[in-house]
Amino acid sequence: MSPRSIISTIIAALLWMLSGTVFLLLGSLYIVLSFVVKPRAIHQITRAICRILLLCAGQRLTINGRFPDVTSQAYIYVFNHTSMLDTFIMLAILPEFTGAVGKKEQFSVPIWGAILRRFGAVPLDRDNRAAAIASMDAVGRSFDEGLSLLVSPEGTRSLTGELGAFKKGPFHLAVRHQVPVIPTVIHGAFNSKRKGDWRLFPNRVEIEICRPICPAPSSLGDAVDGIQCAVRTEFIDRLERHK
Which fold has domain 3-242? Predict the structure, then answer.
């Protein structure tokens, strides 16, 4: 191994030790608090925990743009998914408590799975279409209570850092419930921690918050395709300009 590779490995190990310890301590604190106070009421604590965790992982966040003011209006916050850090990044910057959808496998991970359940995230079984539809319907009903949704339209992390294909689920929800979609573009997280590589690299991550995109009041199929195309175009344009 070259001296540079040895140094980066040592730094990665130290960052994992520090961030892992913080995650265990603060994650456990969050779980305990969520049994005493509803997670929706401690969202600012959640934001602070995620910011501390990212800082301990060597990540510096730069935010361009701003989210709409929190009102009774629900939104669907969507982000490009290239790193295991993405969820923590989004929770660190979101202005409100949201519902979430995640792969069912995540819910079996110690502590993280418990946090997801206390957060109110809905497990999504991709191998069972009926179960997946039922999960999305459950999320859709929460819009009536003004609860926004956080979801990655790609459904999984990118192996290359490039934008993957979008699933239609979030856009069906947007059209059926007439909920605006807010694209949130994350730049640089792939270089911090990519899938298949254990190393964690200190880095600056930039987040671009785009304007809400509202679904057109047209026929279901056309409207879903239209808003999916509009959101994807927004991501592609922002990612290309950042290269």
Answer: Glycerol-3-phosphate (1)-acyltransferase (3.40.1130)
